[in-house]
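User: Can you model how glycyl-adenosine-5'-phosphate sits in this protein?
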Amino acid sequence: MDLMEKIVSLCKRRGFIYPGSEIYGGLQGFWDYGPLGVELKNNIKKEWWKSMVYQRNDVVGLDAAIIMNPTVWEASGHTQAFTDPLVECKSCHHRFRADQLVGSQCPDCDGQLTEPKIFNLLTEVYLGSTEPKTKTYLRGEITQGVFVNFKNVVDSSRVEIPFGIAQIGKAFRNEITPGNFTFRSREFEQMELEFFVKPDENEAERWFLYWRQMRIEWYEKLGIKKENLRFREHSLDERAHYARKAEDIEYNSPFGWKEFEGIHHRGDWDLSRHKLTYKDYTPWVIETSGGVDRATLFFLLDSYSEVGDRVVLKLHPKLAPYKVAVFPLVANKENLVNKAKEIYKNLKSVTVTLTVTFDDRGNIGKRYYAQDEIGTPWCVTVDYQTLEDDTVTVRDRDTAQQERVSVSQLDSFFASKLN
Ligand code: GAP
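Assistant: Here's the modeled complex, given as structure tokens:
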């Protein structure tokens, strides 16, 4: 099995990610997050929001509607320019993005391809109960919700340029070739910052460099290996219609170096299009736009390791779905089980940031392995000594080393490890 197959299988087996609508045969480009996946994804979003909003005083948050007046998409240029070139094989009728093909024949059957056709990625929706229904779109990027609220935010909060608006939410693209697991989906989440600056090249350049550095450091701090990250500047012909300059943070994935997040200099494209100004000028925008699902996938891939016959997800503790697992040493000794349950309940109730799980199935070795495989950084085991001196063993996922910690100290022990 290659790494991607291992990750896809682990995700399904342990409840991170399932194919969408699976019992009805699935739907290409849609995925559901299971009990562990939703925790990992929420932790990624939480860390992003913390670093982009809570730890700064020049960024505020927003949560705009997914469906907007269709005029927004006319004004933003998406109905016209949010497109990919589509070709179809005349023999097997498979469809491809012309810009992603290497040769001129069908990669599946060597058949002849049609001339490229311009294909718009916006997903149409129809609203209202009377015909003709109003046609609009599911948002193709979450960004436009920020721009159309620019004036609202300026008028209702105490922001002054330079400042940013951060948002996390779902976006939808009718991708021609969804694939590589969740990497290219038709429904996905984005985490974006639109940072408004004075319309000045030096100022824009300064903030562009600042944000690209901040963003790559964020991935590094949360454990992505440095050697698996790089920047790549877009050439003129691959830039989106709104971008004056664009650079991707790329990840060294099993299917090649791929876009993790885009840093864009959008100039005054959007605010001008929506006829919005600030004081007597139109600000420029530096954007950082990351994918939550891509981040989830890349954090999983990057943390996957095999130590002997053990699979260990070396997720950063801040991202791990569970921080702590509590076990009785043996399953059928009532006093050990009761003590373990008591410790489990206490840990769960005293701290909000600590997600704790309990397991008393099988033998202790198997339980350690099961926690390693889902990335739980610490396992607490209640043994016979616990009943005598109120200490437990705490096992570290990455070193497999154990140390004895007093039960009354567990809280502060994990709090200091996590921070
Ligand atoms: N507002 C700018 C914007 O949307 P983008 O480069 O088109 O820029 C930004 O998208 C990020 O959104 C990408 O870097 C990627 O992480 C994520 N993304 C885009 N399309 C995606 C898809 N089909 N599936 C999953 N994630 C996607």
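A couple of observations from the model: The chain has two domains: 3-67+139-302, 324-418. The two ends are 36 Å apart (CA to CA).
User: Helpful, thanks.
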